[in-house]
């Protein structure tokens, strides 16, 4: 499962949990009978009694532990938020035109051209390309689905020598590092008579 899918699943689970708890609190607060597992008796019950609130007040470790735990939760939440909001995909690539100027190339256009070149290669059934990195030094993540009869080493050599080299040369990039993942197309077993 990719990171985006994992983030959506985690957000969905957290959202469902918060919705269920919030709905239960609202229902009990409006006078509905609390369920058997509910920690409070009725709508006028408090979350923490005075004894529960003041129980740990005299110990020296209680407040530093609470503050440290909350700080860890806040830091983990901020780290997660920055990883979710950080752009994963390039939007444009800066190309040196050779005359002390530069041009902008849409990254999606290069991704599309590279995928089309890869699919034209013998034995490649499907290709997905994702450009990442910096605008001046992009890197490519490539997923190739190969036909069952294709040798993976031959397909990889052909992709790097043809499609990847063509994309690098046409965009005027000094280099275009790529991480290539190979998989095979699912097929039915052939019937032998």
Describe the structure.
With 193 residues, the protein is of the alpha+beta class. It folds into three domains: 1-47, no CATH class; 55-86; 92-184, 2-Layer Sandwich (GMP Synthetase, Chain A, domain 3), CATH 3.30.300.30. Helix content is 47%, strand content 19%. It has helices at residues 3-29, 50-54, 62-85, 107-120, 152-171; strands at 92-96, 102-106, 124-133, 138-146, 178-184. The strands form two sheets. Strands 3-4-5 form a three-stranded mixed β-sheet. A two-stranded antiparallel ribbon has the order 1-2. β4 (138-146), α5 (152-171) and β5 (178-184) form a beta-alpha-beta unit. The longest helix is centred in the first third of the chain and has 27 residues, at 3-29. It starts with a helix and ends in a 9-residue tail after the last strand.
Task: Summarize the SSE layout with pairings.
Elements: H1 3-29, H2 50-54, H3 62-85, E1 92-96, E2 102-106, H4 107-120, E3 124-133, E4 138-146, H5 152-171, E5 178-184
Parallel strand pairs: 4-5
Antiparallel strand pairs: 1-2, 3-4
What gross morphology would you assign? elongated
* Strand composition percent: 15-25%
The CATH class designation of the largest domain is Alpha Beta
List the uncertain runs.
none
The neighbouring-strand order within the major sheet is 3-4-5
Give the CATH superfamily of the largest domain. ANL, C-terminal domain
The CATH architecture category of the largest domain equals: 2-Layer Sandwich
Mean pLDDT level: 83
* Class per helix and strand makeup: alpha+beta
> In which range does the helix fraction lie?
40-55%
Order of helices and strands: HHHEEHEEHE
